[in-house]
Design a protein that fits this description.
This protein has 160 residues and is mainly α. It has 7 helices and no strands. Helix 3 runs antiparallel to helix 4 and helix 3 packs across helix 7. It is globular and about 50 Å long.
Length: 160
């Protein structure tokens, strides 16, 4: 039950972060996607099943807020959350450089899957936002790695 509450709080935080980003600048949501960061972090910290559930729930909320095609972000984030948990248990990603590369690769996979599905379903290329969307994997990776390090320090201080 505690994990469900943690993921629910994470989704609420992602919604608030998306609202703040949209308020800062209309294209800020193209640079940082808090729902991707949520799926990556939950998958990395809690494992592949929790990551898949967080990605699915966060993706469906993101789809509902975008007023676009429902389910595309859900599929992309479910995959990213699952892969974050699964792959992080198989390879060593403890150093900061590896962690950044790991989150960068998974964020790029999520974005590519989302763009590919949107292009396949809509029959036209996805929204490139003048190429600004290509910055998103890097920005998401830096934010996810920073939050993971902060959460790791918090858990260590609390003795967990």
């Amino acid at each position: 039950m505690r994990r469900v509450i943690e993921v629910g709080a994470g989704i609420l935080t992602a919604v608030l972060a998306a609202a703040v980003l949209a308020r800062i600048h209309p294209l800020a949501g193209e640079v940082i996607n808090p729902f991707v960061v949520l799926a990556l972090l939950v998958g990395f910290i809690r494992g592949e099943i929790a990551g898949a559930w967080a990605g699915m729930a966060g993706g469906l909320v993101a789809d509902a807020l975008s007023l676009g095609l429902f389910g595309v972000a859900g599929i992309a984030l479910t995959t990213a959350g699952f892969l974050a948990g699964f792959v992080s248990r198989k390879i060593n990603v403890l150093s900061l450089g590896r962690l950044l590369g790991f989150f960068l690769a998974l964020s790029a996979v999520s974005l590519g899957l989302w763009m590919g599905l949107a292009g396949l379903i809509y029959g036209r290329p996805g929204p490139w936002s003048g190429g600004l969307i290509l910055v998103q994997p890097g920005a998401n990776a830096v934010l996810a790695a920073a939050l993971e390090r902060a959460l790791a320090g918090f858990r260590k201080a609390r003795g967990r």
